[in-house]
Write a sequence for this structure.
C-alpha cells in the first residue's frame, strides 16, 4: 500500500480539487461514453518528464513518516525540468508495514526531457531507470539496511534519524559523481521525521449530495450514476501521484470483475481543478493519457462546484478510496493508499458484506 500526502492550505481546501473513479448509472462502459473525436485525437505517446512530481512549498509522506522542504535552488531546477523528482516504495506481503520508501532526484538530459514513450506498456519505468541519480531521501526497515547502495543508486549515506520504535532509519543518500551544485542543493533539504501512518481507515457519514459534473472527455454525470449499483467504489487520486498511477491498471481489472456483480468503480481527478474551481487543462490532458495507457473503461470525473457536498475537502493524502450506496450515501470505511488487485478484491468483499448487514 502506498500513499502520497500533499500539504494543502486551508485556502485551497475552500475550493479543493480532486479526481475520482466512478461508473456511469446507465450501465454503459466508459468507452461508449467517449466521443469519436476524443478517441481519435488521444496521442499514442507522451512525455514521461511531464509526469514527474512538481515542486511545491513542502511535502508530507504519511507512509514514510516524513516531512521535508526543498531549497529554492532545487525547486528551480525541477521547474526548469533539469531534475526529475520521483518516488518509489515497497511493502510487506499484507501491506501492514513498509519495507522502504524513497524520494529521488535525477538529472535529465535534453533528450530525456523531450523523450516520448508509448501510452501503453512500461515506457515510463524504463525511461526513469535511465536517468542519472543525484540523491535520495529514504526510510528503510532494519532488514533493508544492507541494500542501501542498490535501492538508492548512491554510495554515500547520511543518517538523519530513526523512527520512535527504532525499526526504521532515515538517510539522505547521494551520488558523489553527480554535479556538485546539485549535491549542495540536496544538502539543504530540511526534514522532519514524523509518525508512520499506514492504511489509516476512517468512517464518514453523510451523502455526496446532488451534483452535476463532467468526466475528462466532457460527458455529463449527475448523482444518478449511483442508482444502478448497490455499492460504488470512489477512488480519489492526482495525476502527479505515482502510487495512484501505478494502481490504475489493477483498478481497471477490478472494475471488470465487479461491475456485473452490482458494484461499480468511479474516479475523481483531484488536480483537475484549481483552488478556485477552474479546470486545469494540463491535468485533464494527463488524465486522458493515463486512461489511455491503462485502457481504462470506467470514467474519471472532474470535481463539481460543490466538491461533492464538501467530501473532498477532508482529503489530505492521495490516493483515498471510499464507498457510497445506491443513494449516494457514504458507507463503510475510508481507505488511504494504493493496494494490489487481490487486496482491493478483499476490501470490496468486506464492504459488500457490511452493506448487507453481514459480519465481514
Amino acid at each position: 500500500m502506498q500513499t502520497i500526502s500533499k500539504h494543502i492550505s486551508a485556502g485551497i481546501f475552500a475550493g479543493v480539487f480532486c479526481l475520482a473513479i466512478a461508473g456511469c448509472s446507465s450501465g454503459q462502459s466508459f468507452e461508449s461514453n467517449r466521443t469519436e473525436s476524443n478517441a481519435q485525437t488521444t496521442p499514442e505517446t507522451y512525455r514521461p518528464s511531464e509526469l514527474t512530481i512538481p515542486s511545491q512549498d513542502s511535502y508530507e509522506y504519511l507512509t514514510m513518516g516524513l516531512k521535508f522542504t526543498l531549497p529554492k535552488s532545487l525547486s528551480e531546477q525541477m521547474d526548469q525540468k533539469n531534475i526529475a523528482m520521483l518516488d518509489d516504495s515497497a511493502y510487506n506481503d499484507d501491506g501492514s508495514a513498509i519495507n522502504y520508501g524513497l524520494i529521488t532526484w535525477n538529472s535529465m538530459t535534453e533528450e530525456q526531457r523531450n523523450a516520448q514513450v508509448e501510452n501503453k506498456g512500461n515506457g515510463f519505468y524504463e525511461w526513469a531507470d535511465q536517468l542519472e541519480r543525484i540523491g535520495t531521501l529514504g526510510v528503510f526497515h532494519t532488514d533493508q539496511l544492507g541494500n542501501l547502495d542498490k535501492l538508492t543508486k548512491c554510495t554515500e549515506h547520511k543518517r538523519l534519524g530513526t523512527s520512535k520504535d527504532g525499526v526504521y532509519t532515515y538517510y539522505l543518500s547521494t551520488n558523489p559523481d553527480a554535479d556538485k551544485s546539485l549535491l549542495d542543493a540536496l544538502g539543504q533539504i530540511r526534514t522532519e521525521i514524523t509518525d508512520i501512518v499506514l492504511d489509516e481507515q476512517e468512517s464518514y457519514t453523510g451523502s455526496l449530495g446532488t451534483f452535476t459534473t463532467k468526466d475528462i472527455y466532457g460527458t455529463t454525470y449527475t448523482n444518478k450514476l449511483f442508482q444502478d449499483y448497490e455499492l460504488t467504489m470512489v477512488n480519489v487520486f492526482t495525476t502527479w501521484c505515482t502510487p495512484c498511477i501505478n494502481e490504475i491498471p489493477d483498478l481497471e481489472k477490478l472494475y471488470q470483475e465487479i461491475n456485473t456483480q452490482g458494484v461499480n468503480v468511479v474516479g475523481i481527478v483531484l488536480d483537475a481543478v484549481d483552488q478556485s474551481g477552474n479546470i486545469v487543462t494540463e491535468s485533464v490532458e494527463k488524465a486522458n493519457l493515463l486512461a489511455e495507457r491503462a485502457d481504462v473503461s470506467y470514467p474519471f470525473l472532474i470535481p463539481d462546484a460543490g466538491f461533492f457536498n464538501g467530501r473532498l475537502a477532508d482529503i489530505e493524502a492521495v490516493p483515498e478510496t471510499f464507498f457510497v450506496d445506491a443513494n449516494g450515501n457514504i458507507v463503510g470505511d475510508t481507505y488511504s493508499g494504493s493496494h494490489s488487485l487481490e487486496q482491493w478484491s478483499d476490501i470490496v468483499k468486506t464492504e459488500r458484506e457490511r452493506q448487507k448487514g453481514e459480519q465481514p
